[in-house]
Amino acid sequence: MRPELKALYQKILLDRAKSTLGFEKGPEAQHIIEAYNPVCGDQFKLFLDLDTDKVDHASYHGYGCAISKASTSLLIESIQGKNLDECRKLIDFFKQCMSGMATNPGEIYQALALSKEFPGRQQCAVLSWQAFENFIDGL
Amino acid sequence: MRPELKALYQKILLDRAKSTLGFEKGPEAQHIIEAYNPVCGDQFKLFLDLDTDKVDHASYHGYGCAISKASTSLLIESIQGKNLDECRKLIDFFKQCMSGMATNPGEIYQALALSKEFPGRQQCAVLSWQAFENFIDGL
Amino acid sequence: MLDVSLIRKQFPIFSTVNDAGKPLVYLDNAATTQKPWVVLESLSNYYRTLNANIHRGIYDLADKSTKAYEQSRGKVAQFLKVEHLEEIIFCRGTTEAINMVAHGWGMDHLNPGDEVLVTAMEHHANFVPWQVACEYSGAKFKVLPLNSDGSLNLESLKEALTPHTRMLAVTHISNTLGCINPIQEIVKIAHNNGTLVMVDGAQSVSFQELNLQDLDCDFFAFSGHKIFGPMGVGVLYGKRELLQEMSPYQQGGSMIYQVGEQKTTYKAPPHRFEAGTPPVADAVALGTALDFVNGIGLASIKDHHIQLRNYAWERLTTTDHVQLLGSPNQSAGIISFNVENIHAHDVATILGEAGIAVRAGHHCTQPLMDHLGISGTVRVSFSIYNDFNEVDQLIDALVTTRKIMA
Amino acid sequence: MLDVSLIRKQFPIFSTVNDAGKPLVYLDNAATTQKPWVVLESLSNYYRTLNANIHRGIYDLADKSTKAYEQSRGKVAQFLKVEHLEEIIFCRGTTEAINMVAHGWGMDHLNPGDEVLVTAMEHHANFVPWQVACEYSGAKFKVLPLNSDGSLNLESLKEALTPHTRMLAVTHISNTLGCINPIQEIVKIAHNNGTLVMVDGAQSVSFQELNLQDLDCDFFAFSGHKIFGPMGVGVLYGKRELLQEMSPYQQGGSMIYQVGEQKTTYKAPPHRFEAGTPPVADAVALGTALDFVNGIGLASIKDHHIQLRNYAWERLTTTDHVQLLGSPNQSAGIISFNVENIHAHDVATILGEAGIAVRAGHHCTQPLMDHLGISGTVRVSFSIYNDFNEVDQLIDALVTTRKIMA
Ligand SMILES: Cc1ncc(COP(=O)(O)O)c(C=O)c1O
Ligand SMILES: Cc1ncc(COP(=O)(O)O)c(C=O)c1O
After folding, report:
1. Which residues of D touch B1 (CB under 8 A)?
2. CATH superfamily of D4-30+297-405
3. Which helix (H) or strand (E) holds C375?
4. A102-111 pLDDT, tens digit each
């Protein structure tokens, strides 16, 4: 077993995947964004309330693997209270982390970035981020 | 060049292919049988008048290669005046010749039988005979 | 058991290793099988010595190529024990075969008021084409519910058939749970009701001996790549009378009798259904693959599958936190399970690192997943080159998975 | 000219002989081309080291297999100079590609009152599917008449287009006469009329450099086996906006977004149009074939074709009793002719005996035969491994033919 596997499934990622932080249905939310991977069936809904251009409240619900759950949870936490410009910067930062080009990625981003070392798993890490980016682009 | 090629395209077959014996349209005939090969486009019409179970008059028209023309002309000549039983025997004899199992095939039948030595040509030799057999079977 | 070490030598892929340096434990045979040397050699030999377009040329190569192709059709006919050569149609695979029937047959024979019945365990390939054919024709699309363990219920089947049911689409063996459906009995029930039966044979063809005359189904489909043959070729079987009155799904060269400016006529089956240049080399190599299978013997192959399955079922049952799906009775060499609190994809990634290739997900059976109330499973599926030791490796890797993900 | 002796060494088939012991003079390249070692090796290599089902597995092999397949899509996109990867769809060949459009696009976009225009020189594959699509939809099927030499007349085209013409189906190069149609101009004329254009590229893809962005056609089809690749794989190109709104011709695994009991949604192109297990190895080997062609260079290949054609045309013109069809201008490496009073099949048999593989018949262009008032032709078609000496052998064999048949 290569060390990358342990580094991917490290404690901080697994804890994040199990945490219930932000895991909450929001059927009344202003915006409901679907993040769905037809290959594996992973499926999250992101619930967003915007106050003009600021994320007033965000939560998510659904199911997926440890990687997609951790990544979605991270996204939801990170955008809380941010305005759209900040959200865009965050997405850029996430992309840099995923491509290994961020200077100071932080432990959990580093773990997520390792997904690309494993067949077909990078999609799990980026699933919700991509859906969120598409949403912002479409505003 | 193998001798079979010369033996296939021997004088008796080529003469037969060029002969106009029985080559005549009969749009008023009792029965018009179509012999068509979709692979090459060879296409003959057999015109038949039956007198109860006897071939009263037969002719053919259309186009095809030397082998199919010779074979069709031979068929038309051979069935002239024959009753259906005799026609059936003739078809059996033709089949035996084609499979090399006839004891006394006669020169032109032998030539036609050589068609099976050449890629895709056996169909040319049997085209009209098959159509005629189908017609008799369907009576 | 088969002599696995001897068999493995015939499959070149087993000399490869994965990115982590591990040799291949290939347990994804329901998705596609590996190819023996003889099949690769057959492919290459075709292109090196016979390659020409078929059914049209009157030179040596074209003739030999056509003969090799038609000879392979004969091998398929024998393999499935069908009576008439023209009942065997070469196509790309199971998916295309079913589409040919759903759309080619469906177009002329489905009308508003008619019904098509499919089971809830069907692969998408035997589900969605019928759904679409119903949409176009106005026929009603009905899904047959299953027992709680995912198996077929013949009583429900009898109830679901109505005087309007024109077609029943049913898989021979579930690609997700491995359960074997009693096709002969199902066909009798359907025929008694005047309903035709399309059998998806993708999983059964490499598992057990088949006799389509005995099964008496109306259509049957399989893919070459699931029985040691190449990708890109498969077979549709259809009863002669049905094919004769069926419209061609595709039009083009080789299937035409005569083209007129306003009206075109078609050749008889099987050519009517093989428009354009077919995958000749692949079809020839499929014949070689069937020879290979006959050489081993389907009785031994079935026995091998069942032994592996029973052993794996037993070991998985006694492995902590593993939840098995389906039932061990009447089933082929396919097992689906989940590991408690661990997503199938995470399991598959960790197994993959150990060199063990399994599938995780819905296996193109979303309606079955919905029925079982799950989003996916881990699936292992066996073939002739697998052995008990590989099952043990699987169990060890599952234990490791739990440790890593705990 | 290309260095033919060097090229021939790369094609194993040229070490075979026919039943009469003659080496192979292969002049039936418009039907299918021979395969170089690199392509056979690519096929074999795929099955030996990468074989797995694609787009679904999360283990090593599945990942590598998927990447090899998608990489090949990239090669095709580059080869055709198209902008977007998702405009490239793998299928069985030209015939299937055209059927996908005629039926997939036609189903939603053709209605009574609409018209489809095809030229009288089309291969059956670009003729009959449109005829059938019109029959089903109630649209009008129209055939564009040709000049007396069989070439396209742009004035007639302009006249034939009406405000109702939704689609023009036209071949890039006639597979019977070799004439090259000015696609760029044709597309402009059609687009000015609001008409879409489906180009049959079966014969052009191995003859000249293509730039689909410049041609600006809406759909384009070709077959792998006509450009040194395997049988069983081909390509449909479609403009992104058109593919996005096009219904899938086949349904099954890998092309589905979500299956519901009553409604199913599909993935975006290209996957929407690749239902089931595709011919992965063949697609990968097609990529290798394109690399091979790029290695030689299409400019040199075109030049080689034209030189052979000009030489053959000249020699045939001065051979007694040979009647050439078509015209030598604007044409590719394909020549059709007849020998006076000798049926094309008899010619082909005698040539075949001399080891010379040519095609005889209607070449799946019956409407063109009707137009020319003939039942068939002898066709020779060149490729990179042919040389002047082979043309000389052809002429000698034609003289022999006259002697035998006199
Ligand atoms: C039961 C079943 N049906 C249909 C298919 C589709 O086969 P293919 O992808 O070869 O067309 C498969 C395999 O994926 C299968 O297991
Ligand atoms: C111009 C043209 N179109 C279509 C086809 C059909 O191609 P395929 O048989 O590979 O589908 C051919 C070749 O036979 C052709 O020459």
Report:
1. 20, 353-354, 400
2. Aspartate Aminotransferase, domain 1 (3.90.1150.10)
3. none
4. 888 889 999 9
